[in-house]
Amino acid sequence: GKHYGVYSCEGCKGFFKRTIRKDLTYTCRDNKDCIVDKRQRNRCQYSRYQKCLATGMKREAVQEERQRGRERDGDMEYSSGVNEEMPVDKILEAELAVEQKSDQSVDGSGTGGSSPNDPVTNICQAADKQLFTLVEWAKRIPHFSELPLDDQVILLRAGWNELLIASFSHRSISVKDGILLATGLHVHRNSAHSAGVGAIFDRVLTELVSKMRDMRMDKTELGCLRAIILFNPDAKGPSNPGEVELLREKVYASLESYCKHKYPEQQ
User: Fold this and answer.
1) Which site among 59, 126, 157, 190 is 20 to 30 Å from 163 CA-CA?
2) pLDDT block averages, 10 residues each, the chain of length 267
3) How many CB atoms lie within 10 A of CB 219?
4) How many whole angstroms separate alpha carbon 49 and alpha carbon 101?
5) Which run of H or E residues covers position 229?
6) According to the model, what pLDDT value does residue 144 have?
7) What Pfam families is this protein classified in (predicted)?
8) CA–CA gap between residue 98 and residue 223 (Å, rounded)
9) For position 84, what pLDDT does the model report?
10) How many other C-beta atoms lie within 10 A of the C-beta of residue 3?
């Protein structure tokens, strides 16, 4: 349909609206000329926003729409309506329902490829354990079970690794130089380096765990992040990618509403 002056998909409409309403700024990791197409539009937000402007999307159209919404309904009613479509309390319930708790821990200093203390073995065992709960978690996310069964399988297959990484990264916020697995085992950074997986381990610690810690990300925000990963319109093969993208946009909107309520001083 036509959004903010040009014909675009629901995904780009939502992206442009969020950018303008929150006055977001982006940076490009490359040369500010990244490819922005249906398959790669989520890879560089800077280039995506520039393409929105280049195709004729109007900032003032977003601002006028927001003003009309305020006059008609009021901001609180708008936020409530958004949350009803994708209730964050249900997303939090999904996280809590599959949360694994264990007091078991190891120092992670073992050696040997098949040793119980081998970090790679421990991580694989924890992943196996979490895969069983991943389907249960997804079915608790609002509207996921309403998708065709084949599409549910496609989305879980496309996102299972990122979903698990997000979970153990958040679980590891309180761990110093390591990660806490679903099995209750601690894997220390030194152990990961000894096992030859230090590079990816450090990347997880730097790009995920430390940032989640700095943001003080709560479990509702984690659940929304994981729901955004789950509703991936770029996964190969869903029967209606537009519907998946619309669900992702609803998660974005509910997360935005939640954060406005939680962090009013940042408005």
Assistant:
1) 190
2) 79 84 84 82 86 91 70 44 77 87 38 50 73 90 96 95 91 86 76 76 84 94 96 90 89 90 80
3) 14
4) 42
5) helix 219-230
6) 97
7) Hormone_recep, zf-C4
8) 11
9) 66
10) 20
Angle at 211 between CA 156 and CA 108, to 5 degrees: 75
Question: 3-class SS at 98?
Answer: coil
What's residue 90's pLDDT?
95
Q: What pLDDT, on the 0 to 100 scale, is given for residue 108?
A: 41
Q: Which fold has domain 85-266?
A: Retinoid X Receptor (1.10.565)
Token output for 213: 């810690």
Helix axes of 219-230 and 88-97: crossing angle, nearest 10 degrees? 90
Single-letter code of the amino acid located at 127: A
- Spatial contact of 224 and 231, defined as CB atoms under 8 Å apart: no
Sequence spans of domains, the chain = 2-72, 85-266
Range 81-87 contact pairs with CB under 8 angstroms and sequence separation of 24 or more: 82/250, 82/253, 82/254, 82/256, 82/257, 83/254, 83/257, 83/258, 85/142, 85/250, 85/253, 85/254, 86/142, 86/143, 86/227, 86/247, 86/250, 86/251, 86/253, 86/254, 87/142, 87/254
3: Cβ–Cβ under 8 A, 6 or more apart, which residues?
12, 13, 16, 57
> Quick check: 126 and 171 in contact, CB under 8 A?
no
Answer for the pair 156, 229: CB distance below 8 angstroms, yes or no.
no
Out of 3.40.190.10, 3.40.720.10, 3.30.50.10, 3.20.20.140, the CATH code matching 2-72 is 3.30.50.10
